Amino acid sequence: MVTSPDSFFEALVETNATILDARGHGNESWQFRLLFPSHEHLSEFHALSQESEISFDLGTVYTVRDMGADLNNVFLSQKQREALELALSRGYFDSPRTVALDELAAEFDISSQALSDRLRRGTKAIVEQAVGLSDNLHGQSQ
Fold it and tell me: Are 141 and 122 in contact (CB under 8 A)?
């Protein structure tokens, strides 16, 4: 049975959902990132979807608190975290910078290029997660 897209959007409106991102994959498949005001609203969306025979695959469910923990703990290596924390605390990301890359690299006893790569990979991992792209990318940050 083909379900009308209207049923899907009506269920979103009924449950006060916010569409954070929507991507079409051909004529058949769509991927949505949705925000619900509460777990109860998500449960209500699920019930309405079943009633309207809307089929979907549920990916990962996060609470706002979980998202912060996810950004802080899952996607960064220990070396990336240490480098980012030191760079942030010393003002590397400030404008103007209050510390040079070579000064930070000396503290880790690595080259400026190695530290730059570490910071770039860590920053990329955080940005990918923050904007919801990490699940769609084929490569992984190291």
Answer: yes
